[in-house]
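Open question from group meeting: does this chain pack into something compact, or does most of it stay loose? Before anyone orders reagents, we agreed to write out a predicted structure and look at it together. Recording both the input and the output here so the notebook holds the full record.
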Amino acid sequence: MARKFGSSNTNRVGTGKIDQSESTGEKWAGSVAAQVATAANIKAIMAKTIPVNYVQCDPQNPRKLALSQAQVSAIAQNYPLDAKLLQVEDATDWIEDYVARVGQGEGLTGKAVGDLESLVSFAAALKSADRLLHPIVVWRDESTFHLIAGERRLLAHILLGESHIAARILEQHYSRAEIDTLQWEENVHRVDMSLWERVEHVKKLLESEAGIAATSVTKLSKILGRSRAESQRYLVVLRYPSPLLLDAIKTGRVGDLKSAAALAQLSPEQLQKKLSGAPLIAPPKASVKFSDKSQSQAFATLLKAAAKQLKMESAIKQIDLKSPAGINEALAILIDGLGSSANG
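Structure tokens returned:
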């Protein structure tokens, strides 16, 4: 657990102020601070090295590690990494044995073992705090630094036994919604963030805004900084949540967003067959072409009427029915819905 910054029971920082020694990390952090200071739109940010023990992980971080900060600290103390092995470049043969020994000693299973292996591999590649390229991001609340971004970097430092870590310090207090957005921007581009973590985080972002039902594709696209197509898929998954599909996403059986969005439009029976590996007859793909604008407008009117009859108005609400691509997308959704009604 993170200690309060400046408390009297530490020998690391006797004055209650951040260590100002001219270490390599400090010089690097000072350079970052100088660059940040030139940005006109970011004025409340400092870059310094701060004590690892005073950083508190965010329990609501979308990256749902199965190991807590306290557990990693205990592992670092009880099973310290071999400094000689860390000095050898590209030496990873020892990691599997180390993880197995720790897992057995600490009673770790499932995802916790995988998360530990990932953290140890990261620590082995990092080797020391001086090699950290990107500082963590924290906001300061009196004597505690609350982590916004960089959980794996922090935990790797703990495993390495490092006392300090480079950090960007945001002095202002951020709301939960603002922190969620910052964490999304930090995590979404990382390949090791699972689909379940991304879906859960988008859900949290929407709930802190107008809500899932009231958020349009365009608005979500702006919130996430992602394409309309990707935003549409998130909304499909979140607006028609099937316990079966959500479980498949959570357990990793469905790992990409495009597949999840397609599965979300199936009937429960079709979804069960698909996830169990049984052959499933693919629904016909909609492909309608129009010779002029009046035809597309008439077809859009028919689609709206059909959606109302099938009680699927919300399913095509955010689709642009002025374009042929949008009309075909809506038609495909209605065909799927019609098939589900017939099978039900």
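Observations to bring back to the group:
The two ends are 52 Å apart (CA to CA).
The first strand starts at residue 45 and ends at 51.
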